């Protein structure tokens, strides 16, 4: 038994924050941001618009694309580090919104790797026979934990959601997933406050040691790509599309070089979405599917790296 992606969907908030907007707020420039990150704009959730609101839009689009209704879903897994509230969990909230009942519904917190972690879990539920059709979502309102005047983070992060419907099938589908973490790097990328620790009086916000995280991301992603290909006995030439986490165009270019892939075979959304953490991979996947680049039968390599550090990859026959 395997799991197969039978539908994708995504959602971006209407509000857009451009580099020109940021120039007015802080000592930065459009040229610096584009050259160092590849980002031109990012979407920002409206006041009162939450992670579950965006997850619901993306989930409904994925259900439509899969030609199924919420009642067909027997598992919901949401990857996010920005839940609406601590409880109920965003998976259960999404289940309630969709009017779907009974199956397990939960969230996983693995920062930017959240969707890959969620996909891997849902794949294991389906392979074990415990679930037949799963909704897997990555959704974030990173703007709520970003200091809007901190030029080391505010230029990077955006909000959004992406989703896939995974269905049981006798052919892959998801060929393999690979999850990793090294908690020894927690101090290079973290949020200053939270529930158990207490909220930061200055407002909970992400702190990022940019150049160090960058260096680790390039090395670690190179390694996970090799591991994924080796686990499947495949050469890098077998990959049709790289669907990477969208943190920085230079990290994406390094991953593409490692795979010897021209950038034309890489789905890049960082320019318009910025880094949407757990939402970035399913958002990019949906863009590639809907604009017709990714076709049925194509071999996709999905990868992500984030706070923790956590990282992971999935090899998927679409
Ligand atoms: N505008 C203008 N100048 C800036 C800005 C800015 N927004 N930010 C930093 N600078 C300056 C710095 O002060 C520094 O100046 P100095 O040389 O006078 O000291 C110079 O530009 C270079 O700064 P670096 O931090 O070395 O710049 P770098 O090229 O590393 O780019 C960036 C920074 C974009 C953050 C990059 O390091 C990066 O993308 N890191 C990885 C982020 C990532 O992968 N995150 C993934 C996980 S995110 C998650 O889990 C939520």
Characterize the biggest β-sheet: 5 strands, mixed
Shape: globular
Are there runs of 5+ residues with pLDDT below 50, and where? Answer: none
> What is the beta-strand fraction?
25-35%
Mean pLDDT across all amino acids: 97
The total of helices stands at 9
Class based on secondary structure composition and strand pairing: alpha/beta
Catalogue the ligands.
acetyl coenzyme *A
Count of extended strands: 13
Helices and strands, in N-to-C order?
Answer: EEHHEHEHEHEEEEEHEHHHEE
Helix content: 25-40%
Distance between the termini: 16 Å
Return Rg in Å. 18 Å
Strand order of the largest sheet: 1-7-6-4-5
Describe, in plain words, how this protein is organized in 3D.
The chain is of the alpha/beta class and 318 residues long. Helices cover 32% and strands 25% of the residues. It contains nine helices and 13 strands. The chain has helices at 19-25, 30-37, 51-66, 90-98, 114-127, 210-231, 249-258, 270-273, 280-290; strands spanning 2-11, 15-18, 41-44, 75-79, 105-108, 133-141, 159-169, 174-181, 189-191, 206-208, 241-244, 299-306, 310-317. The chain has a five-stranded mixed β-sheet, sandwiched between helices. A hairpin with a 3-residue loop joins strand 12 (299-306) and strand 13. Helix 3 crosses helix 4 and helix 6 (210-231) packs parallel to helix 7 (249-258). The radius of gyration is 18 Å and the shape is globular. The protein starts with a strand and ends with a strand. The mean pLDDT is 97. Bound molecules: acetyl coenzyme *A. Acetyl coenzyme *A is lined by residues 28, 32, 36-37, 111-112, 151-152, 155, 189, 210-211, 213-214, 217, 247-248, 251, 275, 277, 305-307.
